[in-house]
Design a protein that fits this description.
2 domains, 5-stranded parallel sheet, 3-stranded antiparallel sheet, 10 strands
C-alpha cells in the first residue's frame, strides 16, 4: 500500500563538484539552500542582496549584475540609516554615499562570482504579488515599513514577468556565457496575501518557470515547490508558523537536490565531510579524558585525509590548537 506520491527527480546532465562557484538570489528558501551548500564546503556567495521575493525585482537585480547602467538607485532615509527600495533592509549605510558603496560592492561580488568558470546561479522566486512605489512608478523589493499610502499592491502579470525575466536572462548569458541557472519556486506560503491569492501567485510563477525552462537551455528547473506540496504534503513538514518548511522538509529537499545535481564522487565527499563536521561539533562530557583525546586525533586524521578534496585548512588548524590545549 502507498500512502503518498513520492516525486522522483532524474539525474541532471548538469553535475556539480566542489570547484563549482555558486551564487544564490531570491527568497529565504534560496538562502537556506545556500547555507546547505556552504555547510557542504562549496564556494557560495549566498543571497548578497538580502531576501527578495517578486520576479520583477529579482530580474532587475540580474540586469544590475550585468550592467552598471541598470542600477537605478532608490534610496530612502529611514531613521538613522539609508536603505534602498530595491533591496532588503540588511543592505544599508549610515550615509547615502556609504549605502551606494555597499550596493556597488555587492554587485561587484556577484559579478565576480559569476565570472568564474562553470558558475551556477540559483534563483528562487517567492511571490508574484508586488508593491509599486507611486512616486517613481516602479516595483520595489521591500517597502521598508514606509506608509502604505506610498505604494500600490498589484499582481504582476505572467506577460510582464516573462518579458522582464527574458531580458534579464539574455543579458546574463551574454555577459556570462558559461553560467548555468537553477530556477526554483519557493515552497514558503505567503499567507499574508491570503490563501487564495497565494495560490494564484504561485501558479503564475510556476508558469513563468515552465516557459523560461523551455526557452533557455542553460536554465534548469528544480521542483522544490512540488516536493513540499505534492510529495511531503503534510503540515508536519512545516514550522510552527505553518508557512515555512521545517528542518526535516528542507533536508529532504536537499537530498533530492544532491541526487539531481551532484556526481557520485561529490556526493560521497559531502557525506564524508558531514560525518567529520558532526564530530567537530561534538561536545564531550569529559574533555580531559583519554577517550576524547583519541577521538580528536582520529578526527584530525579524517580531516587530513579529506583535505585534498575540499578546503578544511581552518578546521585542521583549530583542531590542532584544541588538541594542544588538552595535551
Amino acid at each position: 500500500m502507498h500512502f503518498r506520491t513520492e516525486l522522483s527527480v532524474n539525474k541532471s546532465l548538469l553535475q556539480f563538484h566542489h570547484r563549482t562557484p555558486f551564487l544564490t538570489i531570491g527568497s529565504c528558501f534560496s538562502e537556506e539552500i545556500g547555507q546547505l551548500l556552504e555547510a557542504s564546503k562549496f564556494n557560495v556567495l549566498n543571497n548578497p542582496f538580502g531576501t527578495m521575493f517578486n520576479p520583477i525585482s529579482i530580474a532587475k537585480i540580474i540586469q544590475g549584475i550585468c550592467r552598471t547602467t541598470e542600477r537605478k538607485p532608490l534610496p530612502i532615509l529611514a531613521g538613522d540609516v539609508w536603505l534602498d527600495y530595491r533591496f532588503h533592509s540588511s543592505i544599508y549605510g549610515y550615509s547615502e554615499k556609504e549605502l551606494k558603496e555597499t550596493i556597488d560592492q555587492k554587485f561587484q561580488q556577484a559579478s565576480d562570482q559569476l565570472s568564474q568558470p562553470n558558475s551556477v546561479f540559483v534563483i528562487t522566486l517567492g511571490t508574484a504579488w508586488v508593491y509599486r512605489l507611486l512616486s517613481e512608478n516602479c516595483i520595489v523589493a521591500n517597502c521598508h515599513k514606509q506608509s502604505y499610502t506610498l505604494f500600490q499592491k498589484e499582481l504582476s502579470s505572467l506577460e510582464e514577468q516573462l518579458h522582464v525575466f527574458k531580458e534579464a536572462l539574455n543579458l546574463l548569458f551574454e555577459n556570462f556565457p558559461h553560467c548555468q541557472v537553477i530556477l526554483t519556486l519557493s515552497p514558503v506560503r505567503h499567507t499574508k496575501d491570503g490563501l487564495e491569492e497565494n495560490q494564484i501567485s504561485k501558479s503564475s510563477l510556476r508558469l513563468l518557470c515552465h516557459q523560461l525552462n523551455s526557452a533557455f537551455p542553460q536554465l534548469h528547473y528544480f521542483p522544490s515547490y512540488e516536493i513540499i506540496l505534492d510529495d511531503l504534503r503534510d503540515y508536519r513538514f512545516y514550522s510552527k508558523d505553518l508557512v515555512h518548511p521545517n528542518e526535516q522538509a528542507v533536508n529532504y529537499i536537499w537530498e533530492k537536490f544532491r541526487h539531481t545535481f551532484f556526481d557520485k564522487h561529490t556526493d560521497q565527499v559531502v557525506h564524508q565531510w558531514m560525518q567529520i563536521r558532526q564530530n567537530l561539533l561534538h561536545k564531550p562530557f569529559y574533555e580531559k579524558g583519554k577517550a576524547y583525546k583519541k577521538f580528536m586525533e582520529q578526527t584530525l586524521q579524517d580531516l587530513e585525509h579529506i583535505h585534498h578534496k575540499i578546503d578544511v585548512t581552518k578546521e585542521i588548524e583549530e583542531l590542532k590548537q584544541t588538541i594542544q590545549r588538552h595535551a
